[in-house]
Sequence to fold (289 residues):
Amino acid sequence: MESTARDAAESRPVDPSLDSVQLFFQQATRYPLLTAAEEIELAKRFERGDVEAKDRMINANVRLVISQARRYQGQGLSLGDLIQEGMLGLIRAVEKFDWRKGFKFSTYGTLWIRQAIGRGLANSSRTVRLPVHIASQARKIRTKERELSAELGREPTDEELAAAVELAPEDVRDIRAADQSPASLDRGLGEGDDGASLGDLIADEAEGPALEVARELSEQAVQRVVRELPSPDRDVLTLRFGIGGREAAGLRETGRRLGLSGDDVRQVETRALHHLARSGELAALRDAA
Fold:
């Protein structure tokens, strides 16, 4: 049975990249996953200059890179290349990981890995390379355009597409034009020689992984602290600030939902915010920012 399966596998064309990935994965499984306590201990050792601790953290999280890389297959890079890009993100994550914040490394590392893979895709997808943040937005626009076309049964307008990707319609038009044209975004605009280019006119709203991680971890911390508040403090803050992805509500709407007057809502909100200001977890996040 085993011989038959092996012969069948050998009769199929072998993708050299996939073959190397299989070998890479086999080696990755030799390293056990780390517990939270082990992550902290290794991070502390690495802070003291222990390179072996850094290597162990990297090796123990290679499977995280592979799982993320598989999500980006079919977008222009082989799985092997995606893993290589992701490994760069993993290494950076290990170097930047701050165990004092109390968050799992997998949460932190995943964002760095995704950012590195996305950058690799953006940098390799064009003969004339677009700036990374423009290429990322162009990819998002293309994806949303396909989704809206299927949903509406027609091509979406620039305004509909702009609303879906949260950009101005003129930015969507500029990015689509740049994505479809081999012209460089570094090319000057108009006849003047003021140095302005299309790339200069489109704001770089892409954030580095450090800022993205900080926001995600901060939001998680705020949600945890708010959940521990007594009612109605918890309910008021949740509604007023749209915590947990909700739409923020005004004083009157919050009061209506909770059966409180506007003044009551304001007093509860002030009291709850004072409590948050004294939170040790949020203070640690502010200090690390």
